[in-house]
Design goal:
This protein is an alpha+beta fold. It contains five helices and five strands.
C-alpha cells in the first residue's frame, strides 16, 4: 500500500497559512478545523509546518507573549517529506524514527497532501480488518 491510498481516502486538502500569521490566529484556525498542523506557505512555496507541538513548546519557553508573534518564528522549516508512491510501511518507519506526527507529501514539486499519524493508523486498521475478513472467509470455505 502507498501513501496515495491514504490521500485518496482523506483527500488532498491541506490547510495552510502564511508566515506572518500570528501564532494565536494559527492556533484558532487549528481549533476551528480540528487539526494539529498547518503548512506554512508563501504562495505555492512551502516554508515549513507549524504544529500543536511547536506552539506548546513556544508557550512553555516564552509564555503568553508568543500569541502575537508570527508562525515563522516557531515553525519547523526543515521538513521530512515524501511522495504518493512511498509505501505506508516506509512512512510509518520514518514517522516513528524521526518522532514526527505529520508527513507532507509532494508530487511534481507541489504539495499534494499531508498525512498524519492518525491517518496512517486508520489506514493500517482498515487493512487489518480486510485481512481478518479474507482469512475468516478462507477458513469457512475450507471447512
Amino acid at each position: 500500500m502507498t501513501v496515495e491510498a491514504i490521500l485518496r481516502r482523506k483527500g488532498p486538502s491541506v490547510v495552510t497559512t502564511g508566515p506572518a500569521t500570528s501564532i494565536k490566529s494559527a492556533a484558532e484556525l487549528m481549533r476551528e478545523k480540528n487539526i494539529a498542523a498547518l503548512m506554512v506557505m508563501n504562495g505555492e512555496v512551502t516554508l515549513g509546518i507549524v504544529t500543536e507541538r511547536d506552539i506548546v513548546r513556544a508557550f512553555a519557553r516564552d509564555g503568553v507573549a508568543i500569541g502575537g508573534k508570527p508562525v515563522q518564528d516557531i515553525m519547523t522549516a526543515k521538513l521530512i517529506t515524501g511522495t504518493p508512491e512511498d509505501s505506508v510501511k516506509h512512512v510509518m518507519e520514518v514517522m516513528t524514527n524521526k518522532r514526527i506526527r505529520h508527513f507532507p507529501v509532494y508530487k511534481d514539486g507541489k504539495l499534494a497532501g499531508l498525512v498524519s499519524i492518525g491517518d496512517v493508523v486508520r489506514h493500517r486498521l482498515q487493512d487489518l480488518e480486510l485481512e481478518k475478513n479474507v482469512l475468516r472467509d478462507a477458513y469457512i470455505a475450507a471447512r
